[in-house]
Specification:
There is one protein chain. This protein is an alpha+beta fold and 126 residues long. The chain is globular.
């Protein structure tokens, strides 16, 4: 017999400034501290990291991970472009575009949270 899932708390949009480690490029570190990242989304698909993690090196894509996404994925900022991307796992060579920059990402998360719940109790799903 399966147990019902626990009731999720009502989401609230909160930006949290985060301090980046020293190896994170200066402009990205400034943006993370000044702009901040969402403290959460709806449910547990997006969870902010307590500290950004820099994935970079010679010949690789340089990313600053700011949150987890799913079981193994991360939401990250691409250092070269400033785009927010999703990578399915740390070793992945592919990244999926999420938003053009951190500010756009924050606005999208705020919009999704503001529209929750997406339908009223008793409404038929479409």
């Amino acid at each position: 017999m399966t147990q019902p899932l626990p009731q999720l708390p009502k989401p609230e949009f909160v930006l949290i400034p985060i301090e980046a480690p020293t190896e994170v490029p200066t402009q990205i570190a400034i943006d993370l501290g000044k702009t901040g990242i969402p403290g959460g989304l709806i449910g547990y698909e997006y969870r902010p990291l307590s500290e950004p993690v820099y994935f970079g090196g010679t010949g690789e894509r340089r990313l600053v991970a700011i949150a987890t996404s799913g079981l193994f994925g991360h939401i990250a900022v691409d250092v070269a472009s400033g785009h927010v991307v999703q990578i399915p796992e740390i070793e992945s060579a592919t990244a999926s575009h999420v938003n053009r920059d951190l500010d756009s990402f924050n606005r999208c998360v705020a919009t999704v949270i503001a529209r929750f719940p997406f339908y009223a109790e008793g409404d038929a799903e479409r």
